[in-house]
């Protein structure tokens, strides 16, 4: 378990140091970010790490996952890896994240030996650079008292990543807005580690801020108790090597919401404007009367 004398990034890395139980079977400890349930990014990243432990000399280039059940952050998670295919260039893995005998997440991912080829990319949006912005708390000071003590601690405490918001987003603001969020982020401490860990950490952090973009046109906060809000699935594509301890821009937008689901896509650029990864996610967005439920 994490030691108290570590910095926040080192503490997070201990959760990706999975314990081998048997061939293709690993156990990971659970992180409580203050919601009372396992953070989706944790399950995604640990499942990817379990898959990485069964490969050699290849990098993940895509992953697709479904969130099936709520996870208990007070219990560990067992990751069962199926080696679906091992080829000379590509390998495929299927991972089940299991808790209390039932899968809470299933993930399919594909790995590739890095090779050169054709290249093009979309252009990074014109935004202020991170040095032109300052780090701000996500919750305005006068709204903090509206949160539960657990959520107050989560949303006002510095974590292993620094976020600088291009467009200030007050999650309590009920005015409808364009469904776009742009956020610079990076790890708070240097990470002298190989590329697989950078991709695992990006998988973890990619679950922050993405699907909540779908709430912006509807004038409702993802923290509103009347909104049943949960991730349903998550997909990522990795385009180029990157360093997560250098600034990255997360360009999120939501092209659609329908049938009680919000859909969001994201593009991750490095400071030079190179597109290094893309994401997509759907989340349940259902208004309900909590008093009657």
How does this structure look, described?
This protein has 293 residues and is mostly beta strands. It has two domains: 1-114, Hotdog Thioesterase (Thiol Ester Dehydrase, Chain A, Roll); 160-293, Thiol Ester Dehydrase, Chain A (Roll). Helix content is 13%, strand content 37%. The protein has helices spanning 8-14, 40-52, 149-156, 195-205; strands at residues 19-22, 25-28, 59-67, 77-86, 90-99, 102-112, 161-165, 180-187, 227-238, 248-258, 261-270, 275-287. A twelve-stranded antiparallel sheet has the order 1-2-4-5-6-3-9-12-11-10-8-7, covered by helices on one side. The longest helix has 13 residues, at 40-52.
Can you identify the CATH superfamily of the largest domain?
Hotdog Thioesterase
- Could you give the count of β-strands? 12
What average pLDDT do the residues reach? Answer: 89
Largest sheet: 12 strands, antiparallel
Q: Which of globular, elongated, flat, extended, rod-shaped describes the shape?
A: globular
Low-confidence stretches: 1-5
Secondary structure class reads mainly beta
């Amino acid at each position: 378990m994490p030691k108290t004398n570590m910095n926040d990034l080192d503490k997070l890395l201990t959760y990706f140091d999975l314990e081998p139980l048997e061939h293709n079977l690993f156990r990971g400890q659970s992180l409580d970010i203050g919601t009372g349930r396992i953070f989706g990014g944790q399950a995604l990243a640990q499942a990817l790490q379990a898959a990485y432990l069964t490969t050699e000399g290849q990098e993940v280039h895509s992953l697709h996952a479904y969130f099936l059940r709520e996870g208990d952050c007070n219990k560990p998670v067992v990751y069962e890896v199926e080696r679906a295919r091992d080829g000379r260039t590509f390998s495929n893995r299927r991972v089940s994240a299991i808790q209390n005998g039932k899968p809470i997440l299933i993930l399919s991912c594909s790995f590739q030996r890095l090779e050169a080829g054709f290249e093009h990319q979309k252009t990074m949006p014109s935004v202020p650079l991170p040095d032109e912005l300052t780090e701000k708390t996500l919750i305005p000071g006068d709204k903090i008292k509206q949160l539960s003590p657990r959520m107050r601690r989560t949303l006002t405490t510095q974590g292993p990543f620094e976020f600088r918001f291009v467009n200030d987003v007050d999650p309590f603001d009920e005015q409808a807005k364009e469904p776009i969020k742009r956020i610079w982020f990076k790890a708070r401490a240097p990470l002298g580690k190989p590329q697989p860990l950078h991709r695992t950490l990006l998988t973890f952090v990619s679950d922050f801020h993405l699907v909540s973009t779908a709430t912006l046109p509807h004038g409702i906060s993802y923290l509103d108790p009347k909104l049943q809000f949960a991730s349903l699935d998550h997909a990522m594509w990795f385009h180029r090597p990157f360093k997560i301890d250098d600034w990255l821009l997360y360009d999120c937008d939501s092209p659609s919401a329908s049938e009680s689901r919000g859909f969001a896509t994201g593009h991750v650029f490095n400071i030079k404007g190179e597109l290094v990864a893309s994401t997509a996610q759907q989340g349940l967005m259902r208004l309900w009367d909590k008093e009657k439920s």
